[in-house]
Design brief:
It contains six helices and 18 strands. It is α+β, with helices and mostly antiparallel strands. The longest helix has 15 residues.
Length: 286
């Protein structure tokens, strides 16, 4: 079985920024145990596995170094980029993936970017569990809410988000995929809000740029700012930009996430799978 491999920086237009993702292009299904070992070996926050690249609707699975997850934005962006730039000779205008979160479509734009059509995950205002504010290394949130996947905590300023120093050991014990810190942007108007994302429970202490977190951030900030067009900036050490369109407004059920990618590495996976095994259930989303 041929196994092409790519390392791709997502939600950035230049190398060594955004969020790196591994992408393996598989001709046929591979054992989940092998995919988990590959993801652990790669060490990126996610590695995507595209199964049946020439199919009308390829299968897409995502693994962190420790878990299989049921949704990942930046690795989906990277997978679509790998297909367009390195695997598809027919210059597709879009690709639809079969995933644990249903059919996900990536559309290629004339500007060289990719737009993902993802399910919205709006937060509902909810008090935080005891100790979570302290575990995040912040104080005095102006809003706290819970999406289907994550806690969302709004702070007063971008500086407050930047200054947060979470206790990863404590956060890893919280019953949630992850925690989003966010604040409205100030200054030159290149973006509308900032965020950071922490998910030590699924093996990712701080994620550089988290597409799926913007499925919650988009509806939240869309309501707050009364707009269906937003630009988010994730202010991790690497940093990245996510452009958001809410096609049915902040209360709709879909979120369009647009970003660019940069290929860092390409090659062939030599340690190929030899046997099949049972498919474990997806455990969380990223």
């Amino acid at each position: 079985m041929s196994t092409s491999f790519f390392l791709i920086d997502a939600f950035t237009d230049h190398p060594f920024a955004g969020n790196p993702a591994g992408v393996c292009l598989l001709d046929a299904p591979a054992p989940a145990s092998w995919m988990q070992k590959v993801a652990h070996e790669v060490g990126a926050s996610e590695t995507a596995f595209v199964i049946g690249c020439e199919a009308e609707q390829p299968r897409l699975r995502w693994f962190t170094p420790t878990d299989e997850v049921d949704l990942c934005g930046h690795a989906t962006l990277a997978a679509a980029h790998a297909l367009r730039e390195h695997a598809q000779s027919d210059a597709r205008q879009s690709v639809s993936f079969s995933t644990a979160s249903g059919t996900l479509t990536a559309r290629y734009t004339a500007a060289g970017r990719i737009t993902l059509d993802f399910p919205a995950d709006p937060p509902a205002e909810t008090p935080l569990p005891d100790g979570l504010v302290e575990a995040c290394g912040v104080s005095a949130p102006t809003y706290t809410g819970r999406s289907a996947r994550d806690w969302l905590i709004r702070l007063d300023t971008p500086g407050d988000v930047q200054a947060a120093r979470p206790d990863m050991e404590v956060l890893a014990r919280v019953e949630t995929r992850g925690v989003i810190l966010t604040a409205q942007a100030t200054g030159n108007g290149t973006h509308d809000f900032v965020s950071r994302f922490f998910a030590p429970r699924v093996g990712v202490p701080e994620d550089p740029v988290t597409g799926s977190a913007h499925c919650a951030l988009g509806p939240y900030w869309g309501r707050e700012l009364s707009t269906a067009q937003l630009v988010g900036r994730q202010i991790s050490a690497r940093g990245g930009t996510v452009r958001i369109h809410l096609p049915k407004g902040p209360n709709g059920d879909r979120v369009m996430l647009t970003g660019a990618c940069a290929t860092i590495m390409r090659g062939q996976w030599v340690a190929e799978p030899t046997t099949q095994d049972a498919t474990p259930p997806q455990s969380s989303s990223r």
